[in-house]
Amino acid sequence: MTAVPAGLATALTELAGRRPLLVASDYDGVLSPLVGDPSAAVPTPGTGEALARIAGAAGVTVALVSGRGVADLRRVSGWQGPYRWVGSHGAEYDGPLTGELASRRDALADRLAPLVAAVPGARLEVKPASVAVHVRQVADPAAAASLLSAADAAADPSLTKKPGKAVLELAVTDADKGSAVTRLRDELGAVAVVYLGDDLTDEDVFRRLGPADVGVKVGEGETAAGHRVADPDAALDVLRLLGDLLA
Ligand SMILES: O=P(O)(O)OC[C@H]1O[C@H](O[C@H]2O[C@H](CO)[C@@H](O)[C@H](O)[C@H]2O)[C@H](O)[C@@H](O)[C@@H]1O
Questions:
Q1: Which of 94, 137, 175, 224 is the most buried (most CB within 10 A)?
Q2: Going from the N-terminus, what domains does the chain have, and what CATH number goes with each?
Q3: Is 200 in the pocket of ligand 1 (CB under 6 A)?
């Protein structure tokens, strides 16, 4: 167990009495350590219990806000909790997406597949509203960079580019996590929001947080978040502290 940074602990203590409260988090790299195979990204042990405890506090809503599709997020996490499940970077907000996006996504996947197949270790992930080109397991950094450039060049202007950690995602919607969390905040009438995230797509949320909110960047890199912790283990410590404060 690591100590939660003092400034963050103080901010959470100040926020803990406010209701309604929204506690939202990204999944990969925050609630689950990054691994080579996206389908094997299980939660950090103890994280499900920490989230369930927070969700059990009166007036508190827990939301999982992921780039993954909701069905995939449920499967990979193994969680069933009473959470708000927001997937596909916010495109899946009220439930599964309609089928009309699927044909555009499939055509995109067909265009990208030969590029990915030509690079050993690269992986194509077809998701509800996007296609992701993963290079985490490409041994040659030049080949990885070149594949990401080629995928970027293959994107027509109707697509939304979402670069992330060893990945470039091309989305057939312009949804973003910042809009999704703002919509949740408004819907719940939340007077404060806690958000944890590790990647570029999470910056859309951090940029929209206000002075009453607490944003926590997990890991390195530039951020608009007011607080930072080192890794998913430290993120778990934040959730455990928040659970204690809300109890
Ligand atoms: O918004 P998130 O919940 O963080 O999802 C972002 C993307 O996460 C996954 O990719 C990332 O995690 C993989 C497993 O650890 C890792 O192999 C990959 O390099 C990371 O980019 C997921 O596969 C994507 O679909 C999500 O958009």
A1: 175
A2: 6-93+175-246 (3.40.50.1000), 100-171 (3.30.70.1020)
A3: no
